[in-house]
Specification:
The chain is mainly β. The chain has 1 helix and 17 strands. The strands form 4 sheets. Strands 2, 4, 5, 7, 8 and 9 form a 6-stranded antiparallel beta sheet that branches. Strands 12, 13, 14, 16 and 17 form a 5-stranded antiparallel beta sheet that branches. The protein is elongated and about 130 Å long. The N and C termini lie far apart (111 Å).
Length: 277
């Protein structure tokens, strides 16, 4: 019934690697309670560690810039309700070198053998009277609670930019948050905008799940963007940023205002009475 913490780590053996994927196989007699990846060396998850129906955990992620050391990928908590043995092993592991060619590295996979023994029973005190007969069945071992995570992800700052190679040069917001315990589970984004003068106030779109980069819906008018990062225990951190009026529209409005000023001056001069000789 107690939790067993099993950490999956990678040792690059002196090579620079940038991609790791695979599967952790847990014996069917064990239950996988939870997976946490907050302290992982992987910063870009293609598939966050996920518990599958066949009692495995699949994962795939990358390390931009490469990694050349030893470090954790994620931790899973397993438990067993009765005495017995089992081996947690890795399968289908693929590691790619950080050589710009996607070269696959030769990977050696370790395993972890677990032996669960029944706790020694405490001697029962001598009964003062003869115990009554009972037909109750012995209770199964109770599962111990998992480690708590009540700390929100670290503060982060979204960034609005655009690039000709991303989303046809449209404005987008990029974001990245860190959580050292259960890891980042998801992001949500919403856009705010100033309502027209005759209606007043400030309006917000609905929160929606998003991945970075998130292409803004308001490409021309100014907008404020809020991003929420949730960890695996639903603790949340929030960041915000603003996009000003697009340069093209700023130039257009400037030209329009200059034209209106010139037109106003022309009309005023036309209305000025002419002097008689």
């Amino acid at each position: 019934g107690e939790n067993i913490s099993v950490t999956v780590s990678v040792n690059s053996q002196g090579n620079s690697i940038n991609t790791v994927s695979g599967k952790v196989v847990v014996p069917s007699t064990f239950s996988i309670r939870e997976v946490r990846h907050g302290n992982s060396v992987i910063s870009l998850w293609v598939e966050q560690p996920k518990i599958q129906p066949d009692n495995t955990v699949t994962f795939a992620g990358g390390i931009p810039g490469g990694f050349n050391s030893t470090g954790p990928l994620f931790t899973l908590y397993v438990s067993k309700a009765s005495a017995g043995e089992g081996t947690v092993r890795l399968s289908d592991v693929k590691v790619l070198l950080n050589d710009g060619l996607g070269t696959e590295a030769a990977a050696t996979m370790g395993s972890l053998s677990l032996t669960i023994k029944a706790a020694a029973a405490k001697p029962a005190p001598a009964p003062a009277t003869k115990p009554k007969a009972t037909t109750e069945q012995p209770k199964a071992a109770e599962q111990t609670p998992l480690p708590k995570d009540e700390v929100a992800p670290e503060a982060f700052a979204p960034l609005i930019s655009r690039h000709e190679s991303i989303a046809e040069n449209k404005y987008f917001v990029s974001f990245f948050a860190v959580d050292k315990d259960s890891g980042i589970d998801r992001y949500e984004v919403r856009e705010g905008y100033r309502m027209p003068p005759f209606s007043g106030g400030f309006g917000w779109s609905e929160w929606e799940k998003a991945k970075t980069p998130y292409v803004l819906k308001r490409q021309i008018l100014p907008t404020e963007v809020q991003v929420r990062a949730f960890d695996g225990k639903s603790n949340v951190a929030e960041g915000a940023t603003k996009k000003p009026l697009s340069p093209g529209l700023t130039v257009l409005l400037t030209l329009v205002l200059m034209g209106l000023a010139a037109l106003s001056t022309y009309v005023r001069l036309r209305r000025r009475p002419s002097r008689k000789r």
